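## tool: complex_structure
## caller: assistant
## args:
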Amino acid sequence: MDNILEIKNLHTYFYMDDCVIKSVDGVDIELKRGSTLGIVGESGSGKSVTSLSIMGLLIGTRGKVAEGGIYLDGKDIVHISEEDKRKLRGNQVSMIFQEPMTSLNPVMTIGDQIIEGVLQHEQISKEEAFNKAQDMLRLTGVPRVEKMMHEYPFQLSGGQRQRVMIAMALVCKPKILIADEPTTALDVTIQAQILDLMNNLKKEIGTSILFITHDLGVVAEVCDDVAVMYCGRVVEKGDVKSIFAKPSHPYTKGLLASIPRLGNRAQELTTIPGNVPNPKYMPAGCKFSPRCSFATDKCRQQEPGFYDLGGGHFSKCWLCAEKGGEA
Amino acid sequence: MLKYTCRRILGMIPTLLIVVTFVFFFVRLIPGDPARLVAGEQATLEDVENVRIALGLDQPIPVQYAKYITGLVKGDLGTSLRTKRPVTEEIGDRYGNTLKLTFSSLIWSTIVGVALGVWSGTHRGKWQDYSGMALAVSGISLPSFWVGFLLISAFAVKLGWFPTTGADGISSLVLPSITLGVSIAAVIARFTRSSIIETMQEDYVRTARAKGLAENVVIWKHAFRNSMLSVVTVVGLQFGFLLGGAVITEAVFAFPGLGSLLIESVNYRDYPAIQSLILIFSLQFIIINLLVDVLYAVLNPEIKLK
Amino acid sequence: MADVKDVDKKTTTPQDAKTPAVKPAANPQAAISEKEKADIRTPMSEVIRKFKKQKNSVVALGFVGLLVLIAIIGYYLVPYGINQYDYSSILESPSSKHLFGTDEFGRDLFSRIICGTRISLAVGLSAVTVGAVCGTILGLLSGYYGGWIDSLIMRICDTLFAFPGIILAIAIVAILGSGLYNVVIAVAVFSTPTFARLVRSRTLALKESVFVQAALNLGASDARILFKHILPGAIPEIIVQYTMSIGTSILTASGLSFLGMGAQPPTPEWGLLLSNGRTYLLTSFHITLFPGLAIFFTVLSFNILGDGLRDALDPKLTD
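## result:
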C-alpha cells in the first residue's frame, strides 16, 4: 500500500515577541491510501498544529513551517505558493473541526455554504452545484434534505451541523479528510453515528482520513493506524492492534493504563504524574523523562530516535534498545 | 416581521409623550421673558402684557400644555414667537437642507469609514493598521469648527472653489459635509475595525478558509457580513446625531439647517419653536432606531424567522 | 489486550525508579524549572507590560503629563500677561517676540494659549469626574438592585441618550446661563448616562459571579459587596471610558465657547480664541491655526492614552 500523505521531519514554530514556541518539533507520519490514521495526544501535543500545517492554514498566525516537508501523493505541499495551497483546500485536502455549533456562518443558508465550496473549485453551473451539494448532504443521512438546504445553522442541532460540515468537506471528493476531534463536542450516541458515517463515506468516496483525537476509545473503533504525539513529537506509531496490545513507549502505556476499566474493583485511577511542560521551558533530553518512571540519565540528557520494533511499529524510547529494537 | 414592526411603533408612542412633556416644562425653565422680547425694548409694561395675552402665555401652564398637545395631534406645532410664522413652515423651510447635508455626510463617511476599518482590522498589528487607526483617532480628536475653518480658508477663500456659506446647490454642501463627515468616518472606522477583528477570529471564518475560498471572499462575505449587524447600529446612531446635532458646523458655514434654527430659537426664548424642534429631533431618533431594528431583523436570520 | 503490568515487569532498569529525579548540576532539567518559577506574571504586571509595548500610548501619557504641568505652572512662566493689550502690535504673524503671533488687541497668543491649558484641562477633568462618579453610583444601584430603581434610572438614561450631546449641553446652558461652570455641569450631565450604562452592565455580570455569591453567603452587607467586590471589577472599563470622555468634554466645552455659550471674553479658552478667527481668516491665519492645534493635540493625546489603556486592560487581547 502506498502513502497518500507523508509528513517528514516537520517543524512548525510560532514566532512570538519574546520567544519561539516549537509546537511541532520533528514529526514523521505516513497515511496509507484508503486507511484511517489516528493521531493521539493531550492538548498542547501539537496534533492540531500538524493538521493546520498540512492545510496551509497557518497564514495569518505567527506560525511557520520552519523545517521539513509534507507530501500529498508524492507532491510537496509546503513550499508552494499561497494560491496553490488555497486551491488544494476544500478540494484535495479537507478539514472538519471540533465545534460544529460555531463552525458554520450564521447568516448564510446551509445550501449556500456547501455550494460555495463546490463553485470555488469546479467550473459548473449553479444548478449543478446545487444538485451536487444536495446529493452530498443526502449521503450524510440528514432528514428532509431539500428543506435543510434553505435553512440556517441556528435551526439545526449539533449532530446535524457536524453532518453538514462533513458534507461540505467531502463534496469535492478530497483525497484526504482531516478530522480534528469531530465528535468531542457531541453526545455519545451522536458520536457513534458520526463515526459510522465517516467510515462509510470513506469507502464510498475513497478518501483517506487523518483522525485527531485524545480519546483512545474512538481510536480503537475507527482507526487502522495510530501515531501518539507528545510535546510536538511522535513518540510511538504503528497499527492499532500492535499499539494497544504491546505498547512500548511509557507515555503510551500511561495513556492506556489511565483508561478506567469496567469490572475492576473501584480503586484509585492510574494517572501519569506531573504536567505537560511549558512550551517555553522544555526539558532537555527526552521530553517525557520528567514524568517517566523508567527514566535514566541518558533519557534526561539525550533525545532518543525511532526504534523499529517490527511490523511498522516504531517507538522513540531509549528503553527499546534493551528490548532489541533497531534505531 | 410586520407584527414585530407594529409592536415597535406602538412602543414608541409613550416614549414620545414623555419626551414632549419633559421638553415642555424644561423649556419654561429658561430665564427670560419671551413676551418682552417680542414686544421690543421700547414697549411699556402694558404693551408687554398685551403681547403676553396675545401669545397665550398668560394662561396657566397646564392649559398651555393641553393646548400644545391637542395642537400636536392636529399637526399644529404652534406659531414661532420670533418670526410669527407657523413653526411647521419654519421647520419645513430648513428640513430639506438638513436632510441634504445629513445624507451627503453620512454616505461618504460610511463608505470611507467601513473601508478603512476593514482594511485596518484585517491587517492587525501591521503598518496598515497603525496608519489607518492613526487617521481614525485624529478624526475623532479634531474640533469640527477648526476643520471647517481650515477647509474654508483653503478651498473657499484661497482657491475659491466653493462658497463659504449658505445652502444653494451642491457646491455649498461639499465643505460642510466633509467637515461633518470626518469625525463620523473616524468613529465608524474604529468601530468597524474592532468588530471585524472579532468576527475574523470566529470558527466559521476558519471553516471558510478551509474550504479554499479567496481571502477577499472570506473577509467580506463571511466576516464582514456578520459584522454588518453592529456596524449598522453605529451608522444609525450617527445618522440620528446628524439629523439634529450639526449645530456647530451649521454655525461655521452659516448653513440654514435645523441646528442653527435651534440656536436662534434658544437665543430668542421661542418656546413653540424650541419644543417642536426637540420633539422632531427625538422623533427622528426614535424612528431611526426603529429602522435600525428592522434592518437588524432583515440581516439576522435568527430574528427574521422567529 | 495484554495486561500492562506484565510489560512493566519485563523491562529492567539499571536505576531504582523511586530515586528522585533532581540531581544538582548534573541534571539540566533542574535549571529550567528554576527559570520557569521566576517567570511569574501577575495581572497587573501584564497590564503594565502590554501598555509599555504600545509606544504611542506611552508618548501620549508623557504628553498628558506635560499638559498637566503646563496647566499648573504655565501662568507663572508665560512671557506676556493674558490680557496684555498692545495696540502697537496688533495682528502680527508669529515671530521670535510673539511665538504664535498676536490677536486684534495685540495680546500675545502664545501666552493666552498656554494659560488656556489650565482652563481646558480643569473643565474636562472636573466635568468627567462628576459624570463618572454620578454615573458609577447610578449604575451600581441600577444593576445591583434591579426592579423599579433599574427601570427608572435606565429610562432617564435612555431619554438623555436620545439627544446628541451638544444639544443637551446647549439646553442646559440655555437654562443655567453661559459661563464655564455651567458648561462643566452640562458636560457632566451628558457624560453620566454613559458611565451609568457601562457600570450597570458590569454589575449585572459580576453580580452572578462566584465570589459575589460567596460573599453574600457569608453575610456581607450590600455596601461591602458593591464597593469591595463589584466596583473593583468595573474599574478598568471606567478608567478607559473616563480617559475617552475627557476628549469629548474638551471638544464640547470649546464648541460651546465657540458658539458664545461657554467661556466669555476675555477668558483665554481655546474655543473662544478660535471664534475670533473667522474674521481674520485670510489675513491672520495664525489666530485660527494655533488654538485649533492646541485643542487637537490635547484631545488626541487623551484619546491615544485611552486606546492604549483599553488595549492593555482587555484580557482578550493576547499576543
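## assistant note: The two ends of chain B are 9 Å apart (CA to CA). Chain B touches chain C through 40 residues (CB under 8 Å). Handing back to user.
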